[in-house]
Specification:
The protein is flat, with a radius of gyration of 38 Å. It is of the alpha+beta class and 893 residues long. The longest helix is centred in the C-terminal third of the chain and has 35 residues. The chain has an eight-stranded mixed sheet with strand order 23-22-26-24-19-20-21-25, with no helix packed on it. Strands 8-11-12-9-4-16 form a six-stranded antiparallel sheet. It is 44% helix and 16% strand.
Length: 893
């Protein structure tokens, strides 16, 4: 029994301890990515290590695994029941959360211990689990430097190679004395040094490729060393803690993030984002503002604790259009948005014009909810310093969604009585029994876990005794407006809600702290909390991002100015027959109500074109005539699109024409033959403009167009950028750098991993080649005999004849010669006499050495077969057993 405990102690040192260490390192990475930095990682590691140690020890002594797992489950169930009985609802919640975290780590350690003892090659499974966990943790951080990647992957790789090295060595009992212990420790040390040196060598060898990957990651928005300069340039705005980011780099504008995550603070900016003329008024002429939507984040990802978009959402009612890709005065439309809005009551089409500033991402479609039509329009020359692009948009909106119905009345109590009109209308909805089950179940889906169960309990408490869906929504809104016994509001608005008070609970606990403790947060907190509360009581809801619309001035009715501080998140609730209704649960925020600077002068609306030609320049502009020829087949004639049966070439008068290239003013000399153009002619009483004629083909009407056609604007379409090629001299400074796509990065990672794996599997064959070369280069018979001896031992071992605790003579006589029909025993008598005698050859010795050296390989192939022998040289486990046998065994005579 004492010897058994000694063997267990050896395995504690060489297997359990390294596994506990790599577990601790992995927990550090995971905690850094998913929880606050103050998390008690040491406590987590102790629970993991305890489970690992106990399980390994029990299963080492052959305890039945089924019995232990049943007892483990029973203990987990019993402790959970005891915690539930503790006094205090929220104390129970936090105790349960800690218990689940620590018990999960203990059970994970237990499973690791079980695998290490009972499952052959279990270290491969553990290496995979730890590797995936590390990669996922790295993907959620912002530092993507080469040193960072290598630093995080090195421990896992070293652990995997270490276990590959040590596991075969500990299959059998280890004989321990001072000499053998020192030799074993020395081997481990040399192994670790070689692995680290190999890792550094590979990193240096692939440094250029890794730098390309690093550059691509940085270009995709990772944190760079210039964050401080960028933050200062953006007026103090920090993308990491704001609702917006710059997807296109420093030269592009901001957009609302596609993924919203609750954070410990929020950064804001006072930059102008866009302005809009909204054609939506009450009957008395008073403007009706509408919130401007960017995205619907319909799904919650518990793993990343984020609200995200979902391409598979049922009844998608989001218009997928890129304003920057719509040619001037051209339009796009998607009528499916109207159908998928799932509402007909109190609906109407509202038109608006949107002017984007340089601070706004040019690809962003910002419009009132359910936008279904977009037309690109020009920006007047006098306003191009402020606005870079503009478009006209149509939305299928609800009259019950004007901002005065949507605002949280905390900022203006007078709105409460006004909003009652809306609630009276929505109370006609009794239930969701006639709603498509797939749609309904999707929008009431809740994550699983104690945190969400606690939110569900709160929601049921708030809506207790309430049946009507509208009244449930109102009750949840009023929960955020509640006051304490002193008349002070319980919930408040703040940009710095802080980190969770309990460091052992993940970031979602910020939402729980908000609901149950601090009651302080910004719009993302209110929108996220209300979404979970609504879904918990069976009301379909979704998380919406965009801009809150504030009607600040009567100077320019219908015009609204949007600043970065108005970037907002709110909740939309579905009511059958009415569609999606906006509800802003956020407690009043004065930053949104008050503009950081006075609203400017609205842009002049663009003139209306009677004709837009998609044309190709057939000739350059004449210096005297100021005319050019253009060929076209696609036209817009009085806002109607037409496709001609054949191309038409007409003369164009450009004498009073404005020319633009990529929306920037240029001259007529910029037009060359073959250029793609958009030629615009505006309505003007001084022009002879032909009116559309019903019943007449468009080709005949084009024939009656004035000759020449007077152009007011010509937009030269930018030519596709050609990739620059490296010149013969190899001047790389003039080569256009090409970023790597995610597929290319994965391919590179696959190549690196594949190369390492192939190299490892080739090691047994490479060692054989080394031995053969060494034999062929031997200068005399004595040296050749030693080389043949080493080669023969390796070849017979790889052929399946392993030598365990045998002298070479016994091995040759009992295992090799009877199986392979060789003269290995005869050769061994000559070899041992040469090695331990005087080293002189007798008559016939040279012939024996050469005959055995030339015949052993063919004898092995004849006995085992060529393919089987060849495959064995890719068996790294078989080869490792050869290398790990002690020198004492091989030298035992």
């Amino acid at each position: 029994m004492r010897d058994r405990f000694v063997q267990l102690l050896i395995r504690w040192i060489f297997i359990v301890l390294p596994t506990a260490v790599i577990g601790y390192i992995t927990l550090v990475y995971v905690n850094f990515s998913y929880t606050a930095l103050t998390s008690n990682i040491l406590t987590q590691s102790i629970y993991f290590g305890t489970g690992l140690l106990i399980a390994y020890s029990l299963y080492f002594f052959r305890i039945r695994w089924l019995v232990t797992f049943i007892l483990l489950w029973f203990a987990y169930w019993l402790i959970g029941k005891i915690i539930v009985k503790l006094p205090g609802e929220f104390d129970v919640f936090y105790a349960t959360a800690r218990f689940q975290l620590y018990s999960a780590l203990f059970i994970l350690g237990w499973i690791f211990g079980f695998l290490l003892v009972r499952v052959k090659f279990s270290y491969i499974i553990l290496f995979g689990i730890l590797g995936v966990s590390t990669v996922v943790a790295i993907s959620n951080t912002v530092d993507v430097s080469i040193s960072y990647i290598l630093y995080h992957l090195l421990p896992v790789v070293v652990y995997g190679l270490y276990m590959l090295f040590v596991s075969p060595l500990l299959v059998y009992d280890v004989e321990m004395d001072l000499k053998k212990s020192g030799r074993l420790v020395l081997r481990f040390a040399l192994f670790l040094i070689l692995v680290i040196l190999a890792f550094l060598f590979v990193g240096n060898l692939l440094r250029d490729d890794l730098k390309a990957v690093e550059k691509e990651l940085v270009d995709r928005g990772a944190k760079s060393d210039k964050d401080g300069d960028k933050k200062e340039k953006d007026g103090g705005y920090d993308q990491r803690y704001g609702l917006m980011d710059k997807p296109g780099g420093k030269d592009d504008g901001f957009k609302l993030k596609d993924t919203m995550k609750i954070s410990s603070k929020m950064s804001q900016s006072d930059q102008l984002m866009f302005c809009s003329r909204l054609n939506n008024y009450f009957p008395d002429g008073t403007p009706q503002p509408l919130y401007f939507v960017y995205h619907y984040l319909t799904k919650y990802d518990p793993a990343k604790e984020s609200f995200i978009r979902d391409a598979n959402v049922p009844y998608l009612d989001e218009f997928d259009a890129d304003p920057s890709e719509v040619a001037i005065f051209h339009s796009r439309q998607d009528s499916s948005v109207i159908r998928n809005a799932l509402g007909k009551k109190n609906r109407k089409v509202v038109e608006s014009e949107v002017y984007l500033s340089s601070n706004t991402w040019k690809h962003a479609l910002l419009a009132p909810a359910s936008a279904f039509y977009i037309q690109s329009i020009p920006v007047e020359k006098d306003f191009q310093k402020t606005f870079i692009s503009a478009y006209k948009v149509k939305s299928y909106v609800s009259e019950l969604n004007n901002a005065y119905f949507v605002y949280n009345p905390s900022a203006n109590p007078q709105l409460e009585s006004f909003q009652e009109e809306r609630y009276s209308e929505l109370r006609t909805v009794r239930d969701y029994s006639k709603v498509d089950p797939e749609f309904y179940n999707y929008y009431i889906d809740m994550p699983k876990g104690v945190i969400y169960d606690s939110i569900a309990l709160l929601a049921k408490k708030i809506t207790a005794g309430i049946v009507n869906p509208a009244d449930k929504v109102l009750a949840i809104r009023d929960h955020f407006l509640a006051r304490d016994k002193n008349g002070k509001r319980i919930f408040r608005y703040t940009l710095k809600p802080g980190t969770p008070s309990d460091p052992n609970i993940p970031n979602t606990s910020m939402l729980n702290d908000f609901l149950f403790k601090t009651h302080a947060g910004y719009c993302t907190y209110y929108a996220g909390a209300s979404l979970f509360l609504l879904r918990s009581v069976g009301i379909p809801a979704r998380f919406t991002t965009g801009f809150a619309t504030i009607n600040r001035s009567d100077k320019n009715k219908g015009w609204y100015w949007f600043y970065a501080s108005q970037a907002h998140a709110w909740t939309q609730v579905y009511f059958p027959g009415y569609g999606w209704m906006d509800f802003d649960m956020t407690i009043g925020n004065e930053d949104q109500q008050n503009a950081p600077k006075p609203d400017g002068t609205p842009p002049l609306p663009p003139p209306e074109p009677w004709l837009v030609l998609n044309a190709k320049a057939e000739s350059v502009v004449g210096d005297k005539s100021k005319r050019m020829d253009a060929t076209f087949s696609n036209i817009i004639y009085f806002d109607e699109k037409y496709q001609l049966n054949k191309s038409v070439t007409r003369s164009i008068d450009v004498s009073v024409c404005r020319v633009l290239y990529d929306k920037k003013d240029t001259t007529l000399s910029a037009i060359t033959a073959g250029d793609s153009l958009v030629i615009v002619s505006y309505k003007d009483e001084a022009k002879a403009i032909p009116k559309p004629r019903k019943g007449v083909s468009i080709e005949n009407q084009v024939d009656n167009f004035p000759a020449p056609i007077v152009a007011d604007e010509i937009h030269i379409k930018p030519k596709p950028k050609k990739e620059k090629k490296e010149d013969v001299k190899g001047d790389r400074k003039n080569v256009e750098e090409k970023g790597m796509s995610w597929k290319e990065m994965l391919l590179l990672a696959g190549k690196i991993a594949g190369g390492v794996i192939v190299f490892i599997f080739l090691l047994p064959l490479l060692y054989l080649i080394y031995l053969v070369i060494r034999t062929s280069l031997a200068k005399n018979d004595a040296t050749k005999a030693d080389a043949i001896y080493q080669t023969a031992l390796y070849q017979f071992h790889m052929a399946g004849a392993e030598r365990i605790a045998q002298t070479p003579l016994d091995y040759a006589r009992t295992k090799v010669d009877p199986v392979f029909n060789t003269s290995f025993y005869t050769f061994m008598t000559v070899y041992l006499r040469l090695k331990y005698g005087r080293g002189t050859l007798r008559e016939g010795d040279a012939e024996i050495i050469h005959q055995f050296g030339n015949s052993k390989a063919s004898a092995i192939r004849k006995t085992k077969g060529f393919f089987k022998v060849a495959l064995n040289y890719f068996n790294i486990v078989l080869a490792s057993r050869y290398f790990l046998q002690s020198e004492n065994e091989y030298e035992n005579q």
